[in-house]
């Protein structure tokens, strides 16, 4: 597969004014400070070279300043990124040519190129958005971003997202095949695929795009999109990896135990 040429950055990015603050990009446990007044590119090449992945644009994302804010801009031609705050309360798809302001103290960016999913974060010392306490219901459970997953559905997502959640100092992972994830859980491939269909249908009804797949190449894309959404929205976190130590026990728990 040949690489698609990257698009030029969107027009209208103003020159940074005085008093701007730096931001820091974290990837694979390494931190890079982006000084005020500079343009920082991310991709297969650039200021942050993510990976020699032929599915990844040479220059995919950029960080630039305009109007007193740092902006994350998609300068690629075909890939999108999922951008969220650390609590998963705000989530947006950054399509080619789109831009978003960096307003949170920590902004998480998750994207996929081929079967590989990447995660990085942008840290701002002076975020424009200040967190306020979340309201809880009478039972003490947060109602923000609740997704009603059964225990086995959450187990499935954790099994698929395991390499991304562990990261192991790489910040990138090849997702397991359905057969490998099924084996990890001790399930038959038929059981795994049935539950994968149920999970994707449930999230598709809630408006998550890219989960309507077939049985060939689009099946891989569906798994990639599921993991990308689950990780960026904090539907599953590294704390959930303990579920893989005893899948049958966790699969028998009540659905309340699997709420994010």
From TrEMBL:
Region Disordered: start-end pairs:
1-20
Composition bias type Low complexity, residue spans: 8-19
What this protein is called in its record is FHA domain-containing protein
Q: Which organism is it from?
A: Microbacterium aurum
